[in-house]
């Protein structure tokens, strides 16, 4: 593809600021806040860094799940401008009616012929370029609502330095920090000759926050099957506070339904309350993470602690003076151990104890148990995390390492205070470079 799609208009937003020499001086060293009091100065800091400009450009484009077209287009332009070959994979949203522009995954690898002068070791033709050893992947969708990108200094400003500058807004952490850091990692390692262009590829997927449909489409694609035979490692980007995740909890979701019989609330014996049917089951399930396993509770483990339960959605009845005919609830279990089928058995057993007639309907989602990850790289702190990722949505051959790493904290990721610091971003860039080099030596 040529750089036709408005690249000339896109590039300026990446790095616009005209930084004068003495300003440059002010924003590079270990400086204090006087230099950053006005917004212009804060944005100069961003403009002076290719990584931070890239991050800002991606974050300024709204990309709530199913609306990832525009941010995908921007990434294609940036990657092509940096001499990557880009393959897009259309992932239509469910129930799409063609009125919205189609969303797509972005898979990209360095165009070997254009990078060959920069330290490529073994270039034998097109087939080499399509068999990378390391894949860096993160997601380009965000949760709603979109929150504009902004810059600020933590209080007290006088104690803040460049690395403390707070970058806030939707996606600044989850997951556009990783998109920017991974892309910049590849660019830096390529230009320094730190990796051979045929060794790395990038994958930016849609839909992680809702269904994982982007990653699953990639996993099922001919492109993946034709290119993955050389993989040594996949580096998944999610906020891990700059630590290497040794694993994450599993997840299983349940929709519970009760069908009763409507009646006048003055004559409840003429009906059957769906709310009364479902409530005991919800009470039991709500506590299922706290009950010892021996007493029918959910699995625990040393690695992840307790499984947890969230009764996240309930709906029942139509009005206060009508015996409810129908009730439903959605419950999410975060699994610290066991398999999905074991958990389904535990949950079903707990429900049937308070529903001996078997009237409640249970619909389980296609979940997964805890996901172990590789954390065998020296120099990184490790953690385990409680959230789900795209890791289980891609089939990986035996022996391929899976790393999960990224800047910022999941604790702010989906909230209104989503944000991270310049220091977080830059540490993660250094971390990713070390991870890629480690993976290439495996
Ligand atoms: C892309 O490749 C062309 C041709 O080899 C080269 O002139 C240009 O500088 C490269 N651009 C980047 C950003 O590497
Ligand atoms: C969407 O567009 C495609 C191709 O143009 C067409 O085959 C399909 O029927 C359309 N779907 C709807 C729901 O209009
Ligand atoms: C099609 O999608 C658009 C945008 O999501 C929406 O506004 C519109 O109501 C939809 N139309 C139909 C017929 O579903
Ligand atoms: Zn995420």
UniProtKB/TrEMBL annotation:
What are the protein's GO molecular function terms?
Answer: hydrolase activity; metal ion binding
The answer to whether keyword ATP-binding applies is no
What superkingdom heads the lineage? Eukaryota
Keyword vocabulary terms for this entry: Hydrolase, Metal-binding, Signal, Zinc
Signal sequence span is 1-17
- Any idea where the Peptidase M20 dimerisation domain is? 247-357
Asked whether the UniProt record includes Hydrolase among its keywords, one would answer yes
Its needed co-factors are: Zn(2+)
Q: Which family does it belong to?
A: Belongs to the peptidase M20A family.
Q: What is this protein called?
A: Acetylornithine deacetylase
Q: Which organism is it from?
A: Cladophialophora yegresii CBS 114405
